[in-house]
Amino acid sequence: MSKKTSKNKKNSVFRSGLKRRTLLLTGFLMFAVISIQFLLSFIFLRTAFKQDVGYVALGFDNNIKAAVETIVSVLNENHMQYTDGVITEEEALDTAKRIVRDSRYGSSIDKTDDGYFWADMANGYCAVHYNPANEGEMRWDWVDQEGTHYIRNFIKLGDEGGGYSDFYFGKPGDEQGSYKKRGYTLKFEPYGWYISTGNYYEDIDAVLAEIEAKNNSNLLILFGTSLFTVFVGLFLVSMNLNRIVTPIIKLSERVRKLSMGDTSTEDNIVTAQHDEIEDLHDSTFKVIEILHKLLGVIHTMIIEQEKGNVDYVFKTEEFFGDYRVLADSVLELAAFGMRDQLTGIPNRRSFDNRLDLEWNRAIRDQTPVSILIIDVDKFKTYNDTFGHQQGDVALQTVANAIRQSLKRSVDFAARWGGEEFVILLVNTESEGALSVAEKVRGDVENAVIPCSEPAGNRVTVSVGVNTQIPASDSMISDFISGADHALYGAKEGGRNRSVLFDGKAEAP
Fold it and tell me: Which of 95, 127, 258, 347 could crosslink 340 through cysteines, CB 3.0-4.6 Å?
């Protein structure tokens, strides 16, 4: 074929509109793919924005609720000082007023000490307020700009066990102003105080406005990047149409699947083009292969840890670069979720998972399973005497003693909560469980706690033991309650002892 004939054939192809139609079709397909992705992303972003708004509002509510509950808890501790005879009634009342009047908390992320509290009586009398002008006032008939008797609402909510209310009130620096607030009230029974605090809606709206601005910015970026992708794709296709159209379309579809969470490696695209197209193909499927492997080992780890196997981890050395960073971060998050951060031993969640697993195995194999509930004796007194930081050191020492007391790899110890620990012994009769309990008790008693005061070098524990061969209708809650009853017996019997549940009495 002559050069002229070949040239005429090429011109004929282009005059027939093949390239033009292919470009239009390719452009339409790319635009459709990007549009679908943009639409889905837009839906996801809007959904996430709505969820964020709900989380922010809930976060503000939880913040003021937690603040009031904390104050009430502190007031209860102070009142216990009076009932225990440590301080006089007058000292307790004065301290309680200072606690309510002077305590502060952060109402939002960028405000650390703007939240304050006040206390009203059932008749509307303001017992405590940070503003001296309000303290001592009879506020039963006070109304806000909408005619709401907000003090009466506080009293009603307190009597109902606590709750939220909306009202208008001044703010520090503008006492005579009227700003909408979202408040929470909880009753402190010993003094008949209705403790309240609140967030100003303008602070909540400011956070929501910031979230909405970020959401709109993300939408603009998403829209811009989507358009940019379309134009770049059309340009590349037009430059080298016949060579790259087919693999690029296939790779684009595969990447879209990846963006939707599909990391399967079954639909590999075979190329033999020894150029950038092949490099793109290899890199894409290398990413898919790594993500597929990473998600697989994470899934396996989650399954194992749900079984209570908190020591199960995968090897992060198999990954590199940012994938290694991601893998290490996953392991850190897993450890944070399954281990107690103070003592380093498994937490309550890990124990519950392990107990479910071993309980079902014991039902299936009809083997005994034992539980030990361990409580540090007079720990509140220890905390009050030596301080909470020293109390943390004591708990760490107790946890280490418990951990070192267990010799079998299948034995499982965890922090139950506060000063309580728990041990699960599989395939262990009551005699063996009681023997382990005594060893734990003795090891804790002999453990030396680092403390500058000799009196703080030792603590003791009481242990409640329960053993059961569970049947299909046995309840884990009854199993735990039995050990709890035995623990109660150990406490009543003088502490620093182990007691086996006899199975006859109801758990307390």
Answer: 347
Q: Are 236 and 244 in contact (CB under 8 A)?
A: yes
Lowest mean pLDDT segment, chosen from 222-226, 314-318, 360-364:
314-318
State the DSSP H helix or E strand holding residue 188, giving kind and residue range, or none if neither. strand 174-188
Binning the chain into helix, strand and coil, the percentages to the nearest 5 are: 60, 15, 25
Rounded to a whole number of angstroms, the distance between the first and last alpha carbons of the chain is 101
Question: Which pLDDT value is given to residue 465?
Answer: 97
Q: Are 440 and 422 in contact (CB under 8 A)?
A: no
Whole-angstrom CA distances from 419 to 175, 238, 406, 450 are 45, 71, 19, 17
Q: Which two tokens stand for residue 196?
A: 């309240």
pLDDT band per the 50, 70, 90 thresholds, residue 13? very low
Three state DSSP letters for 411-471: CEEEEEECCEEEEEEECCCHHHHHHHHHHHHHHHHHCCCCCCCHHHCCCCEEEEEEEECCC
Query: Given the DSSP bridges, would you call strands 369-376 and 420-426 parallel, antiparallel or unpaired?
Result: antiparallel
The H or E element containing residue 473 is: none
User: What is the Cα–Cα distance from 62 to 70, expressed in whole angstroms?
Assistant: 12
